[in-house]
Write a structure and sequence with these properties.
The chain has a single domain, classed as Jelly Rolls. The protein has no helices and nine strands. It has strands at 20-21, 34-40, 53-62, 69-76, 83-86, 90-91, 97-106, 113-121, 128-138.
């Protein structure tokens, strides 16, 4: 059962409401949508979700051979989970370093795991993710 909401912040630990990861899990191979980062919300069942969950993602990457565009998505749970937010196709050139962000709001009860995915259009070789940020704010 979630802890009841309190109206003061004295002695209140809010760290569970602001989970973050900067761990690069993988880089996209060819043109496949690939999970590049995973955020697991600790003690998710014990946190009251009143309005929803703000999700924020950012990635720095080098586009692989023949790549012409990149799309970042934040999904619930895994690569086949519900899309919370997507950038749409961002025009990029192979071999170039780029950094992009994607931000959204999961207005439902949320889930305990969010993933940041990347897909490179027409990629003929692996792209390289050099850094990322994936965070959530539970409201």
């Amino acid at each position: 059962m979630p802890t009841p909401i309190r109206y003061d912040s004295i002695g209140l630990d809010l760290s569970k409401r602001f989970p973050v990861t900067t761990t690069v899990g993988a880089s996209p191979a060819l043109a496949a949508e690939t999970i590049i980062g995973t955020l697991t919300i600790p003690s998710f069942a014990d946190i009251s979700v009143v309005s929803g969950i703000v999700v924020q993602g950012w990635a720095a990457y080098t586009v692989g051979t023949s790549g012409t565009a990149v799309q970042l998505r934040i999904r619930q749970t895994n690569v086949s989970g519900t899309v919370v937010v997507a950038t749409g196709a961002l025009t990029r050139a192979a071999g170039n370093l780029a950094a992009d962000d994607v931000n959204g709001f999961d207005s439902g009860a949320g889930v305990g795991t969010y993933v940041l995915t990347m897909q490179v259009t027409a990629g003929a070789a692996a792209s390289t993710v050099s850094a990322l940020y994936l965070g959530a704010i539970i409201v």
